[in-house]
Write a structure and sequence with these properties.
The complex is a heterodimer of chains A (about 160) and B (about 550).
Chain A lengths: L1 H18 L28 E4 L5 E8 L2 E3 L2 E5 L3 E8 L4 E4 L6 E4 L5 E6 L4 E6 L12 E7 L1 H10 L8
Parallel strand pairs in A: 2-5, 4-10
Antiparallel strand pairs in A: 1-2, 2-3, 5-8, 6-7, 9-10
Chain B lengths: L4 H28 L10 H36 L6 H23 L13 E2 L2 H31 L7 H32 L5 E2 L1 H29 L1 H4 L7 H14 L16 H13 L1 H21 L17 H24 L11 H31 L7 H26 L14 H4 L2 H30 L28 H24 L6 E2 L1 E2 L5
Parallel strand pairs in B: 1-4
Antiparallel strand pairs in B: 2-3
The chains are: A alpha+beta (about 160), B mainly alpha (about 550).
Chain lengths: ~160, ~550
């Protein structure tokens, strides 16, 4: 019985892994946490989702004790998305439930993930690495919305979030 | 011939006392973050507890078992008194003092950084100093094991080193070298910051050094278990070891390939490139080889024992095994948990599959199944096997012992299977509190509660374990006879140098580590101070 359970658990993990295959990050980029707020791509006005010239979307996010900026990430469905994120203080990480998106955020380095969300929906995005007393409260949200709806929003705003 | 009985007993008792206390913390943590906890939970106490539980279970408990068992093996296998007994007591004192020095700041809430350290968070310097003392104390043991084997070989030229001692020394060398990664991290990167000489640290580089230790440390924990499989189990069930050479090859493979693979803990990290992530993934796959060799050899040894007892048929022999024997029971449970945990481990080490479970509760479930399950159940069995020889008194192998082993096995399955499941659902690790009112997290409530129940079974099992050992100290005196390790079907008469010593294998061990870690470390060092980040002091006055 337990052998079947193990088989099932392993089967689920393999299915999840192959079905939504994600490659580990292959190269190193750096960001200085002492200046990350005032210069470069992670200044506050540049965080959130941005539409690139080729139609893909780049999400820039920052983790800090004990929240993400933005706390609600909005992305279009069925569109290539690149997440670029780093930490402003200690080691954090995030995973997006129901997907294979899962990375560490190490201060000093930039985490880069190419991803694609197939269908609209809502996901939670917890910090998955111990980052101090308060780690348990570090949860963000990801809203995947219809491609067309996203395009309408993007026409009005340079950087999108769903923080209310 | 066991001369250093008090020395071995002192190691085992200190180990098990630490284990008992840390187990209670573990079960409290399971409860505190479960939906069964009516209160809101206090995250400060929770993370103190996680740090204490991890440091005690990871650094102190298995190290003391390996040391105590190692001293026993030296005398029992080489049939001569231990060389350097005073040094051995010094090592034990360092581990004991180190454990206390480390755990005081932890319990005061001054070092809630977990046993994996997590710079740039930096805690009270005494936490790290305590851990260093524990490791240095264990390095005395590493040196003593090496010296005892070398002296014996000089006195017995051309004779094969007994398998138990060969494996014991393999474990010692493995630990000596794998601890270097964390030692560099603590001594060169963290302590200068904790002591206030520096205020920045490269978190990425620290993680690379720690990964060097983090994976192979598990094989160090595993060594006493594997030694028991090969050198106690076949004798205890009345059989023979299927192959002595297979055992040597398995231990050699652990020495060579368990270090250069730690980067599989960093697949999701941004500071290591894809090439070395992939190479180390491949190397990790290789480390399953000694385990497969072991499972085959141990099952074959069991078959030999069964057929000697009259077991028949291609599968019928399984029935004829001595199922009432505690060593039979413990080894079976251990191999089952090793099998389940090992298959899960293949997911974790896989270059791509890792992301579906990285840093989720699956991982915690996984290493509890391997360490607390497959490994620790054999620590119990080792204690049961050695106790009469250590105390000179009878240890009853009755119903209580069987109940203890059954409870540990069932408790571990009930704890870890739901743990794996919630991991797949995306439940993150190391959180003091989960909002079960959130519909997404509500789905995990039942499984998390099951794990609390499993943990309670483990606590009951531990109570039985202590009862059995304490009773053993009060039982009637009896001569247990000479201690014997398992004999192989074909006892080695002459062995090639490669199967009787470590020169070649240590060269390979160090060489492969330098190759697989050299480039990732050099790459980060070349970035200079640009990636050093300000330390965030933990427990500092606000």
């Amino acid at each position: 019985m337990s052998a079947c359970t193990v088989g099932l658990l392993v089967g689920m993990a393999i299915f999840a892994g192959v079905h939504r295959a994600v490659m580990p990050q292959a190269w190193i980029e750096t960001a200085n946490p002492r200046t990350v707020h005032i210069a470069g791509e992670f200044i506050e006005s540049n965080l959130g989702s941005a539409v690139e010239a080729d139609g893909s979307v780049t999400v820039r996010a920052l983790g800090q004790q004990f929240s993400f900026t933005p706390q609600c990430v909005v992305v279009p469905s069925d569109t290539p998305v690149t997440i670029r994120a780093t930490s402003a203080d200690v080691v954090h990480g995030f995973l997006i439930t129901g997907t294979n998106i899962n990375t560490m955020l190490v201060p000093g380095y930039i985490s880069i993930l190419p991803v694609k969300f197939k269908t609209p929906g809502e996901h939670t995005m917890p910090c998955q690495e111990f980052c101090g007393l308060g780690h348990e409260g570090m949860w963000a949200k990801v809203k995947v919305i219809d491609k067309a709806a996203f395009a309408t929003l993007a026409a009005k705003q340079r950087r999108l979030t769903c923080v209310e | 011939m066991l001369n250093s009985k008090r020395l071995v007993l002192a190691h085992f008792w200190l180990a098990f006392v630490v284990f008992g206390l840390a187990l209670l913390l573990g079960e409290w943590q399971m409860f505190a973050r479960s939906p069964l906890n009516p209160g809101l939970g206090n995250s400060d106490w929770y993370y103190r507890s996680v740090t204490a539980h991890g440091s005690a279970m990871g650094y102190v408990f298995p190290t003391l078992i390996a040391m105590g068992f190692g001293y026993a093996i030296t005398e029992l296998a080489l049939k001569k008194p231990l060389i350097g007994r005073r040094w051995a007591w010094t090592g034990l004192a360092m581990v004991a003092v180190g454990a206390v020095v480390a755990l005081i700041p932890v319990s005061l809430g001054l070092a809630s950084v977990l046993y994996t350290f997590y710079p740039p968070m930096v805690g009270n310097p005494f936490y790290y100093i305590g851990v260093v003392l524990v490791v240095v104390g264990s390095w005395i043991w590493v040196a003593l094991m090496s010296i005892n084997m070398i002296v014996w070989k000089r006195e017995n030229p051309d004779k094969p080193v007994p398998l138990a001692m060969f494996a014991n020394v393999a474990g010692a060398y493995l630990w000596g070298w794998t601890a270097v990664g964390a030692a560099i991290e603590v001594l060169l990167l963290i302590l200068p910051v904790a002591l206030g000489f520096k205020d920045t640290i490269d978190a990425g580089l620290s993680r690379v050094f720690f990964s060097w230790t983090l994976h192979a440390i598990v094989y160090f924990w595993l060594m006493p278990t594997y030694i028991a499989y090969y050198t106690i189990f076949p004798r205890a069930i009345g059989g023979r070891l299927y192959s002595d050479a297979m055992g040597r090859i398995a231990f050699i493979l652990f020495v060579v390939v368990s270090m250069p693979i730690g980067v599989h803990h960093l697949f999701a990290d941004p500071q290591v490139g894809g090439g070395f992530k992939f190479i180390q993934s491949v190397f990790t796959a290789m480390v399953s080889l000694p385990t497969l060799v072991t499972i085959f050899t141990i099952c074959a040894s069991a078959e030999i024992a069964s057929r000697l007892r009259g077991g028949r048929g291609p599968f019928g022999w399984v029935k004829a095994l001595p199922w009432g024997n505690p060593m039979m029971l413990a080894t079976t449970f251990s191999l089952l948990m090793l099998g389940f945990g090992g298959v899960g481990g293949l997911i974790n080490m896989s270059y791509q599959l890792n992301t579906s479970i990285h840093n989720t509760q699956w991982i915690t479930g996984h290493f509890h199944l391997i360490f607390a399950g497959a490994i620790v159940i054999m620590y119990f069995a080792i204690a049961y096997d050695l106790w009469p020889h250590l105390t000179g008194r009878i240890l009853k192998t009755g119903r209580m012992m069987k109940a203890q082993l059954w409870l540990w096995f069932v408790g571990m399955i009930v704890t870890t299977f739901p743990w794996h499941y919630v991991g797949i659902l995306g439940m993150p690790r190391r959180m003091a509190f989960y909002d079960y009112a959130n519909p997404e997290i509500a789905k995990q409530a039942f499984s998390v509660s099951m794990s609390v129940v499993g943990g309670a079974l483990l606590v009951v099992s531990a109570v039985l374990f202590f009862t059995i050992l304490i009773r053993g100290h009060r039982a009637e005196r009896a001569d247990p006879g000479e201690y014997r390790f398992a004999q192989a079907v074909h006892e080695p008469v002459r062995l090639p140098a490669a199967l009787n010593g470590f020169a070649l294998w240590l060269t390979l061990m160090i060489g492969l580590t330098v190759v697989n870690y050299g480039y990732p470390i050099a790459q980060l060092l070349a970035l200079g101070s640009s990636t050093s980040v300000p330390a965030v002091y933990v427990g500092a006055p606000q």
